[in-house]
Specification:
Blueprint (H helix, E strand, L loop, with lengths): L3 H16 L7 H14 L9 H12 L3 H17 L4 E2 L2 E2 L12 H10 L5 H12 L5 H11 L23 H15 L14 E11 L5 E11 L7 E7 L8 H8 L4 E6 L13 E6 L2 E6 L12 H11 L1
Parallel strand pairs: 5-6, 6-7
Antiparallel strand pairs: 1-2, 3-4, 4-5, 7-8
Helix pairs in contact: 1-2, 2-4, 4-5, 5-6, 5-7
Length: about 325
Amino acid sequence: MMAPSIKRLKEIESELGTLVHWEKRPWVKIGIQLNAAHDWQGWEQNERSFSAWLADIAEKLELNPSNLWRYYSAIRWYNETLENEHWDGTKLPPAISLSNTTSPENIELLAKLQRVLPDREFKELASKVVFGKVSRSAMREVWEIYRPALQGKTARGRSSSAPRIDVENPTQMDAKWRADFVALIQHEASWTGASDPSLYKVIPAVSFYAEEGPKIEFDAVVLLQRSPKTPLEFHGVKILPPSSRIPKRTAALLGQKCDFIWFVSSDPDMSQGPDSTSGILIVVEAKVQVAQQPQNSSTTPNHSAELARTILQQVF
């Protein structure tokens, strides 16, 4: 007589064989079946591990194993972290009720972002992901902003827990502070004085070597066009570590490479920059305040050419 676990595994394999031939592949149903296979453990009779069984079933179904891992991991994490959570009066659905338009890639990125995002921001983003209200490109954009805060650390192995940001690590916390600010201004242009610009684009972490000069590093560069008839402006942003001040030489050097240079601080007492051309932004409780307006710092007709070339290379 066939053991219940083996019988159930055969049923799961048969169901997977049917699901993968649907016109639109139902990744949620596939992920649920893969989790059932893992939990029933019928694969232990013939395979050395669940990973080996998954690789074998992927070959039989003529699928990429990495896709099956993504479906399995997304449903696993969702079940353990989000299923049936109540946030702001909204109950998140069980995994079986997830829409197929909810991207497994987005859930994968959401799991990574949980390690670094504040609780309120994580819940807001999670709700958008679950109900399909955020694009894959937008999720990747958020992840690229926050990834440096984890210093490239990821889980080692399929069963390892992913490392969270270490609040006792000054380097990580400084990187998180920078990421928090870039995320804060991502879709909010009012600090530039433009309420409804024709173009507003935030490019994080822009750096290049100046011709016959030192390395130029901006924590972000903002491309701004106030109206269709006004020229494109390059706003360089440098985020200061807590309790630090702005060296005058740094302000002058960065100001030569963009139209407007902004320094960002969490110190509410920093009301003036090292010179009259630098702008000062103060961040208090996730609110951006302009302490000093910048002046156009350009000194030559092609002052921002190197910056423009770098952005083109980075974006395209």
